[in-house]
Amino acid sequence: MENNHNHNRLQPEESRFLSGPLSRFKELLFTFRVQYSFIRAFRKMHFIGPCVTVFGSARFDNSNPFYKKAEQVGAALANMGFTVMTGGGPGIMEAANKGAYEAGGYSVGCNIILPFEQKPNLYLHKWINIRYFFVRKFLLIKYSYAFVVMPGGMGTLDELFESITLIQTKMIQNFPVVIFGSEYHKELCEHIRIMAKNESISPKDMELLFVTDSVEEMANHIKTHAIERFKLVKKPQNPTWWFGEKK
């Protein structure tokens, strides 16, 4: 029993909360911490947009072709006037931030705090460390007018389907979702077609996805379906110090 007790103490707070009912006081305290996490993030990230969020694996280093392509994606988005937002970590996230940073654009990250201490990458103008996965996912969607899904793993697929579901259910507007890497995502796209064929999704839901291997095609798609559709412009920033806001 002692070993189990020690293991529970070492678990991240979110993991302990999901492990089952806690005392009423601990569950109330958890809601206050989540509320504080949201408010802190809203104040820090209020002036970063308009953004495009780039999702992708944390495991690809700078010798990987997908890393190099993500750099080009980040640079292209920055040249279009977007802030490039990622999960703030290594791999594809670092590459997209690096591309934006070195192109003279604005680069931000929402870094998750993990037991093995994922650190923010070196190509961020602004970042926030987030304790809870669900708060982080919310922020990665909240400020963005388009989503670019680079090759990745389970977390990347989770972020992709979270975004599509919110668009499908009209919780957010019909923002463009670009799946980058047709060969890597071939079976994924085929499975989505199978879902449409079997009517577990609407055939119109297929229109929510744009699959490409071209940075130029990605940029043109986002220009048409985000910049022109939503008439995006950069607005002047007027931070208020007593809200804890900074440019």
UniProtKB/TrEMBL annotation:
GO terms for biological process: cytokinin biosynthetic process. GO terms for cellular component: cytosol. Pfam families: Lysine_decarbox. It catalyses: AMP + H2O = D-ribose 5-phosphate + adenine. InterPro entries: LOG, LOG_fam, LOG_family_nucleotidases. Belongs to the LOG family. NCBIfam families: Rossman fold protein, TIGR00730 family. GO terms for molecular function: AMP nucleosidase activity. Its EC number is 3.2.2.n1. Coiled coil: none annotated. This is Cytokinin riboside 5'-monophosphate phosphoribohydrolase. SUPFAM superfamilies: MCP/YpsA-like (SSF102405). It comes from the Bacteria.
